[in-house]
Structures are given as C-alpha cells and as structure tokens.
Amino acid sequence: MNADREYLAAGLALGTLADAEMLEALDLEAADPDFAEAVASFHETLGLLAETDDAVAPSAETSAAILNIPRQHQQAVPERAAHTADAAQAETAHASTPDSKAPDATTPSSKSPSSTAHDTASPARRRRPSTALFALAASTLLLISAVLAGALINQQQDTSQIEDSLTVAEAERERAERLLSASDLAFIEAEVTVGGQLNLAYSVSEQMLHLTPHDMPELDEDQTMQLWLIDEEGPRSAGLMTGASTELLTDLPMTQDMTFGVTVEPAGGSEEPTSDPVVLADL
C-alpha cells in the first residue's frame, strides 16, 4: 500500500482526517478490500493498545505541539518554493545583461514542455506522501502519549493500593500483638454441633476476641453465622462470621463470666437468636 493510502487508513482508524479526506477514506474502505483490511488492522492495533491501560488524554499543550508538526512542514515547503523562484528570477536577470548570450531561436530548448510539466508536478507528488507521514507520526505520538499517561496513572493507583494494604496489615499486626501480650489472654477449643471446631483466643482486659474455624461446614447463601456475648441481661450480637476464615474482633463489651455463643441466622443476621446455638463457651 502506498503512503497516501496508508495515511488515509491510519487517519480513518484514529479519526484524525479532515472532512474531505474522511469521505475519500470511507469511499476507499467500501470499494477496496485491501484498504478496508488495512483500516481493520489499524483498529486492531489500537484496540490492543487500549487494553493494556486506560487511555488518558494528553494535555492541550502536548496535543497542540504534536498536531502542529504537519502544519510546520507544509509551511516550510512554500518557503523553499519561494526561495527557488527568487533564485530563478535572479538567474534570468543575469542572462538578460549585454554580456550574456541570447539563445539561438533555432536551437531546441533543452527541456521539452512534457519535461517541464514533469519537473513542476514532481514536487507536488513528493509533498503529499511526506505530509502524510508527518501526520501519521503526529497521530501515533498522540496515541502513545495517551497510553503512557494511562500507564503512569495506573502505576500511581497501584502504589496507593499497596500502601493502603500495608497500612491495614500493620494495623492488624499491632492488634494481634496487643492480644498476644495481654496478661489475661486465654484459649478455648469449642466443638461445633454442625461439624468442625472453633478455636477462641480472647482477652477481657483488651476487649478482643480472635476466632479460628476448622472444618466448619459451608452454609447456604441465605444463611450466616452470628456471634453472641451472653450475660445475665441476655444475648448481645458481636457480629457475623463466615466460618471459612479467621476473625479478629475488637472493642467488644466483654466482662468476666460471660458466655460466647454462635447461631445460624438468616443472611444479614438477627436482632436476637432465632435458632439453637451451634457453639457455646464460657469465657
């Protein structure tokens, strides 16, 4: 595919063509299978780039600077043409002086009209591919800058998430150290009536309770396990647990001679127990 068509195909995929070029590109896409395949290839490449990172638009200054590249190139061509014309006029004026020889009227011109037309047309034919390549490069630079900006934003977000995770982990470590260093730290191994075992580590002074389930059965989606602290006034909810992972509960209203219990409740929990406890342990 020549440079003109490659420029139109890339511009159609990027959406950077002027109105007239866009119409030309759409006509080619409908009539020329090779051109349509090239457009599809550009679309596929852009899609792969878009999948790597969320694209973020570059700043207005960056866009203006990149898009100005083709215009600067186009302005440079007329300036070179004007310079060439001035040089030709100076050479003609020099030839018209008395010292110069007038050309023989019978001598054929060294350049035929077709040759002159060919030389005149050549710069125009060269200019379009060069301009097309500059425009394609500008569009590509815009796309790359957007992808790189997206990658930078994602990297910053990933760093922030890692910092948050480390902060949470550090807080959990500090709470675990408080529990393990408590002077009244106690342990209980409680059998679960529906199967499995629940290990408790707790401290009344620190108001903390750590639960470690072992081989406890999975509940239906509409059920959950609810924790209770039971005293003379009755049961008080201490939260929910999955039965599949450890739980560290803090700031519990724990007192001496309380009873810890677990019941199976509807999803979301209940204000008071609605079933017989599957775990009971005196604290």
Provide a descriptive summary of the structure in words.
- InterPro entries: Anti-sigma-K/W_factor, RskA_C.
- This is Anti-sigma-K factor rskA.
- Keywords: Membrane, Transmembrane, Transmembrane helix.
- By secondary structure, the protein is of the alpha+beta class.
- Among the domains are: 99 residues, no CATH class; 97 residues, Immunoglobulin-like (Sandwich).
- The protein is built from 5 helices and 8 strands; from the N terminus they run αααααββββββββ.
- A 4-stranded antiparallel beta sheet has the order 1-2-3-6, with no helix packed on it. It has a 4-stranded antiparallel beta sheet with strand order 5-4-7-8, with no helix packed on it.
- A hairpin with a 5-residue loop joins β1 and β2.
- α1 packs across α2, α1 packs across α3 and α1 packs parallel to α5.
- It is elongated, with a radius of gyration of 40 Å.
- It starts with a helix and ends with a strand.
- About 12% of the residues have low confidence.
Mean pLDDT: 72
DSSP helix fraction: 40-55%
Q: Order of strands across the biggest sheet?
A: 1-2-3-6
Rg of Cα set: 40 Å
